[in-house]
Amino acid sequence: MVTLAPAAPQSFATPNGRVIAQHADYSLITADSPAIAGETIIVYAACLGPTEPNPAPGEIPEYPAQTAGSLTVSLDRSAHEQEWINQVAGVTPGTAGCVPDVTFEPWAATPEIRVTMADQASLEGVILPAQPSPDQAR
pLDDT per residue over 9-24, tens digit each? Predict the structure, then answer.
């Protein structure tokens, strides 16, 4: 027996558990080039459910398509307010992946990042290399 869910979000991660994400200039976020609090980043995820419009079976779309459901992103188990998640979350043109753009304010240097769609969440333990902004008081 197989149970089907409307979404089963998963972020893409490296073998050492770091999320695959990019700065706004499309350079990779790494331990040597961490995300800085307050910047907008691109996080790659899959299985976020249906999109609008929904591509035909087997089609890799050449147009942007937005996810049809409610997407949340959590850092260290704190859900981000919806306005921090860019409404272009959806299929990346020319690929089969989904990308939520997120502006964040991490409290930890390497927060755990989770993507949730409907009542399904990505795996625990995936971290985002990040640091506070230089002017952020702790």
Answer: 888 899 999 999 999 8
Give per-residue burial for 109-131: e unless 16+ CB within 10 Å, then b.
Answer: ebbbbbbbbeebbbeeebbbbbe
Q: How many CA atoms lie within 13 A of 85 on its CB side?
A: 22
| Predicted model pTM | 0.75
The verdict on domain 10-131 having CATH code 1.10.40 is: no
Token pair 């910047």 is found at 39
Q: Which residues contact 63 (CB under 8 A, 6 or more apart)?
A: 53, 93
Exposure pattern of 72-81 as b/e (b: 16+ CB <10 Å)? Answer: bbbbeeeebe
